[in-house]
Model the fold of this input.
Amino acid sequence: MTTRPDPVRDADPEALALARSLLAGATYAALAVTDPADGLPGISRIAFGLGPEGMPMTLISSLSTHHGALRADPACALMVGEPGEKGDPLTHPRLMVKARAVFVAQDAPERAALRDHWLKAHPKAKLYVDFGDFGFVRFAPVSILLNGGFGKAFRIDPSAL
Amino acid sequence: MTTRPDPVRDADPEALALARSLLAGATYAALAVTDPADGLPGISRIAFGLGPEGMPMTLISSLSTHHGALRADPACALMVGEPGEKGDPLTHPRLMVKARAVFVAQDAPERAALRDHWLKAHPKAKLYVDFGDFGFVRFAPVSILLNGGFGKAFRIDPSAL
Done:
């Protein structure tokens, strides 16, 4: 057995730049929630993007299981940064964001601007963005961990992004 | 607003075949846990494979945050089925498995067979499989949901796989 250093360090400028590029490049994410039916962890794939002010957000249907979970308990975690088709997927960088979900009401004044912004990065969403069950949800980051591969984990202060 | 049917159906043979192929083809997964430090959802990427008997499993380091979380509370959820680089990622099928983690002790008689089996599908893991902090964890499925794209969600009985 070899001794290895504390695997999590504070982010340096290179780590911050990588974190920003992972957030800016992601069009989908994995979302961890607490299932209100049984109190156990649940997981889903969601659409992902950054709002006009740079805050992570999604567009989800109220028919989805994760929508009900976030309504019952807005504490959640997101993972972005998907491996390509080559190489060891565990060495591909990914960002894990603990967050609180903040629902945007269908009649909120800001919805029109969010809709226009979202459709620029997710043009296929125009097929369903106006369905009555689809709404925007923002994620207010609580803590962020960047894993850049084995032995390259960094804590990131959400305000630094 | 249009009325749409209950989005979750019981699995048909085609859905079962898709679920089996997603499990058999995955080399990594997203893992949702409950963080013992704060009781909130946490998420990570883990290596993923099927054991000799077909049960989902992983190889993880005891230095990882998810290892500590699973030790404190083995209830978790896995998602497998990664989008390719083309098309709408939300239409790509994925399997969401609620499970309980079962740790395989380093001195368990079965470890040698699991190690050989794992390395066939994850040859790069030979670089670290024998580090003292790496161990195998099996996932006993509790419930399974297959999402094959919008409007194509199926409940799957774990015993059917």
